[in-house]
């Protein structure tokens, strides 16, 4: 009895394995190829530099579909011409694949400026790109919320041409406390700049003052002369600069010319008169 059960068990297992193998073979060789069209492929035709209607006809005859995903202005092409496509021409794709087209317009399309206030600089740039806009000048001002957009050059909701440049003002995270200004007199320029930046202060105007003797790039004066400033404030510097040799020669010549006094004719040296033979 035990042997009979064992024999039946193994016969059942063999039958199940056989059915599974046959089913797998049918699915792999018949069902999946029919579903995925594995053995079929179409060459993508080149429909750029065609009118959109003609491009659609070409794609349809090739067993493909189309979708206009973008419109741009390019003066080199007439309006409603295809200027780009994805996938690229000559690639092999499955039948009924959708080909994405970019079409030329007669004028630059309008877009609405999105609000990017309170976003980080990176997120604001991505948002502008999503709307077909470009990031312009990025300037920084003192504000507690570091790396946050606090102003944009064009108000949100304004209709503008695609590709318009939007400039942003970003917070540097400073301006929430006062710092003591160190004594900068006699420091080298790079030393003074390093000290100011460490304290969260900005370098303002740097004015060079010519000197006859002494070392160049030394701090002669600075402003403002307050004891403390708010983080992010600018400090203007006056820096020494040695005069060049040529400048000294020119200045010496001017001094020499100014000391010469015109003599009257009566006291001017006369040329000697040669005796007559």
First and last CA, distance: 170 Å
What is the CATH domain class of the largest domain? Alpha Beta
Strand content is: 25-35%
| CATH architecture identity of the largest domain | 2-Layer Sandwich
Structural class designation? alpha/beta
Structure characterization notes:
The protein is α/β, with parallel strands linked by helices and 277 residues long. The chain folds into three domains: 42-104, 2-Layer Sandwich (Trypsin Inhibitor V, Chain A); 110-171, Trypsin Inhibitor V, Chain A; 178-246, Trypsin Inhibitor V, Chain A, CATH 3.30.10.20. 29% of the residues lie in helices and 29% in strands. The chain contains five helices and 15 strands. The strands form six sheets. The chain has a three-stranded mixed β-sheet with strand order 2-5-3, with helices on one face. The longest helix is centred in the first third of the chain and has 35 residues, at 2-36. The N and C termini lie far apart (170 Å).
């Amino acid at each position: 009895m035990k042997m009979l059960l064992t024999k039946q068990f193994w016969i059942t297992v063999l039958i199940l394995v056989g059915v599974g193998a046959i089913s797998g073979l049918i699915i792999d060789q018949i069902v999946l190829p029919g579903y995925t069209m594995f053995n079929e492929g179409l060459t993508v035709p080149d429909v750029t530099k065609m009118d959109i209607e003609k491009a659609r006809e070409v794609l349809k005859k090739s067993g493909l579909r189309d979708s206009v995903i973008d419109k741009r202005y390019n003066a080199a092409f007439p309006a409603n011409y295809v200027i780009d496509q994805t996938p690229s021409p000559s690639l092999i794709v499955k039948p009924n694949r959708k080909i994405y087209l970019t079409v030329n317009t007669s004028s630059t399309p309008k877009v609405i400026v999105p609000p990017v206030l309170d976003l980080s600089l990176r997120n604001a740039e991505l948002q502008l790109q999503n709307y077909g806009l470009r990031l312009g000048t990025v300037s920084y001002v003192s504000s507690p919320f570091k790396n946050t957009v606090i102003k944009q050059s064009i108000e949100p909701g304004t209709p503008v041409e695609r590709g318009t440049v939007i400039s942003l003002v970003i917070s540097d995270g400073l301006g929430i406390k006062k710092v003591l200004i160190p004594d900068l007199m006699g420091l080298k320029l790079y030393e003074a700049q390093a000290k100011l930046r460490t304290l969260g202060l900005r370098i303002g105007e740097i004015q060079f003052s010519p000197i006859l003797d002494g070392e160049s790039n030394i701090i002669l004066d600075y402003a403002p002369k307050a004891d403390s400033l708010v983080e992010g404030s600018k400090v203007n510097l006056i820096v020494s600069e040695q005069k060049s040799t040529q400048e000294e020669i020119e200045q010496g010549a001017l001094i020499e010319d100014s000391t010469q006094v015109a003599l009257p004719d009566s006291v001017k040296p006369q040329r000697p008169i040669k005796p007559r033979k």
